[in-house]
């Protein structure tokens, strides 16, 4: 559920097909830089009603999913 | 007299910050700017807590006015300098190259006001959520580490996105830049390049000469290809070599990261005009003389005030 929602947010932001995204998809391969990651995090915070730490460890879709899941537990 | 909410919030006379330039902004320069009525800022750069404590002591010995410390969050010493800022109860901390969320509770407890440099609307909103009291919206006209947006574009958009005060930075060196920033919705400005040539700035004289001699197209941006450490500096052998290596087919993010190592020191301490990295903003072309910091500030605000008083003449 978290994975699908995050893929939806990413797809919406970069105008891609959400079904092409997997947990292994690297942000660098999507042309998503650190400023874009911050924007994604803000959208995700609003969507899930949580607060996330943004740092350079967020490199892939899977990293983001794991971070969100750790906050929801 | 130009007074904005940031003056009252920080206890300063003029709404102007001196940028926390690595290898340049030391305790002596910060104190001179604070004594001149602005907010002087010490750069913690890539140095350890002992260096920062020493500079804070120097600033305190020279001024009783508020000053700040800038922490570059990618510094290997970020944790220990963040702690020194809290322990010393430095009035203001500005941050660059990241999001300082993990230090914010400790700084809040110590009464340190946090004013991060931001390069996008999302970053500004994140900072506000984390407890920042203001943000510095910095355009890519500035020297050093830069984002993608220009000052003209970022300041009004950040202004609309957050309810905390916005300080404009990037491309500002005189009263015209201050007046324009206020019109864009900022309630203060941060200047680096102009203060670099302040008499009280201890940077190598060759660095000052490079800035004083620079024109409108004298700067170049390095590190664009792989991102992560995109910097603006004055064109010289260093930038030409960097760009040649960066765009060579064999270049990797790792090989490019090594190109800049030690180059700031070479510029600021050794004055090596060939191989030093002379960080400076696009506005360097407007910076043409060495003056005391207090005189710089007074000149800028006198000009800004005259411009703003005359602004009504545009409206018929």
List strands and helices in order, with pairings:
The complex is a heterodimer of chains A (73) and B (316).
Chain A: H1 2-14, H2 34-48, H3 61-72
Helix pairs in contact in A: 1-3
Chain B: H1 5-10, E1 16-18, H2 27-35, E2 40-43, H3 49-62, E3 67-72, H4 78-87, E4 92-96, H5 104-110, E5 113-118, H6 121-130, E6 135-138, E7 144-145, H7 151-161, E8 166-169, H8 175-183, E9 189-191, H9 193-196, H10 205-213, E10 219-222, E11 231-234, H11 237-246, H12 253-259, H13 263-268, H14 293-310
Helix pairs in contact in B: 2-3, 4-5, 8-14
Task: Give an overview in words.
The complex is a heterodimer of chains A (73) and B (316). With 73 residues, chain A is mainly alpha-helical. Chain A has three helices and no strands. The radius of gyration of chain A is 11 Å and the shape is globular. With 316 residues, chain B is an alpha/beta fold. Chain B has 14 helices and eleven strands. In chain B, the strands form two sheets. Chain B has an eight-stranded parallel beta sheet with strand order 1-9-8-6-5-4-3-2. A three-stranded antiparallel beta sheet of chain B has the order 7-11-10, with helices on one face. In chain B, helix 8 (175-183) packs across helix 14. The relative contact order of chain B is 0.14. Chain A binds chain B through residues 33-35, 38-39, 41-42, 45, 51, 53-56, and chain B through 98-99, 101-102, 119-123, 125-126, 129, 147-148, 227-228.
SS class of chain B: alpha/beta
Structural class by SSE content of chain A: mainly alpha
Tell me the helix content of chain A. 40-55%
Q: Could you describe the largest sheet of chain A, including whether it forms a barrel? A: none
Q: Average pLDDT value of chain B? A: 95
Largest interface: A-B, 13 and 16 residues
Q: What's the order of the H and E elements of chain B?
A: HEHEHEHEHEHEEHEHEHHEEHHHH
Cα separation of the termini of chain A: 14 Å
Radius of gyration of chain A: 11 Å
Radius of gyration of chain B: 18 Å
Outline the biggest β-sheet of chain B: 8 strands, parallel
Q: Based on the coordinates given, report the CATH architecture of chain A.
A: Orthogonal Bundle
CATH architecture tag of the largest domain in chain B: Alpha-Beta Barrel
The first-to-last residue Cα distance of chain B is 25 Å
Task: List the secondary-structure elements of chain A in sequence, H or E.
Answer: HHH
Portion in beta strands of chain B: 5-15%
CATH fold topology of the largest domain in chain B: TIM Barrel
Discrete helix count of chain A: 3
Shape assignment of chain B: globular
Number of helices of chain B: 14
Shape estimate of chain A: globular
């Amino acid at each position: 559920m978290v994975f699908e929602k995050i893929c939806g947010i990413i797809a919406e932001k970069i105008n891609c097909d959400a079904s092409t995204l997997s947990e292994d998809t690297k942000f660098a391969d999507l042309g998503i830089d650190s400023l874009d990651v911050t924007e994604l995090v803000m959208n995700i915070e609003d969507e899930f009603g949580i607060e996330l730490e943004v740092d350079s460890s967020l490199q892939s879709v899977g990293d983001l999913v794991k971070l969100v899941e750790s906050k929801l537990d | 007299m130009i007074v904005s909410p940031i003056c009252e919030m920080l206890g300063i006379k003029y709404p102007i910050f001196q940028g926390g330039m690595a290898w340049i902004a030391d305790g002596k320069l910060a104190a001179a700017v604070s004594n001149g009525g602005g907010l002087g800022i010490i750069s913690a750069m890539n140095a350890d807590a002992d260096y920062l404590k020493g500079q804070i002591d120097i600033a305190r010995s020279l001024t009783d006015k508020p000053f700040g410390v800038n922490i570059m969050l990618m510094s290997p010493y970020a944790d220990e300098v963040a702690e020194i800022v809290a322990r010393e109860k430095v009035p203001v901390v500005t941050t660059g190259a990241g999001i300082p969320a993990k230090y914010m509770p400790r700084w809040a407890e110590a009464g340190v006001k946090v004013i991060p440099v931001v390069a996008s609307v999302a970053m500004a909103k994140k900072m506000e959520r984390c407890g920042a009291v203001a943000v510095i919206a910095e355009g890519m006209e500035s020297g050093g580490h830069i984002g993608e947006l220009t000052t003209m574009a970022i300041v009004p958009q950040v202004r609309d996105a957050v309810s905390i005060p916005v300080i404009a930075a990037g491309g500002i060196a005189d009263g015209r830049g201050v007046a324009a920033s206020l019109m864009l919705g900022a309630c203060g400005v941060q200047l680096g390049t102009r203060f670099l040539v302040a008499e009280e700035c201890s940077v190598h004289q060759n660095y000052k000469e490079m800035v004083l001699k620079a024109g409108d197209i004298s700067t170049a941006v390095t590190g664009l290809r792989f991102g992560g450490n995109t910097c603006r500096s004055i064109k010289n052998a260093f930038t030409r070599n960097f760009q040649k290596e960066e765009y060579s087919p064999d270049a990797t993010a790792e090989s490019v990261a090594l190109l800049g190592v030690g180059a700031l020191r070479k510029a600021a301490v050794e004055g090596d005009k060939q191989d030093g990295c002379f960080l400076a903003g696009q506005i360097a072309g407007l910076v043409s003389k060495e003056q005391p910091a207090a005189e710089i500030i007074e000149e800028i605000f006198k000009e800004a005030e005259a411009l703003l008083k005359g602004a009504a003449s545009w409206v018929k």
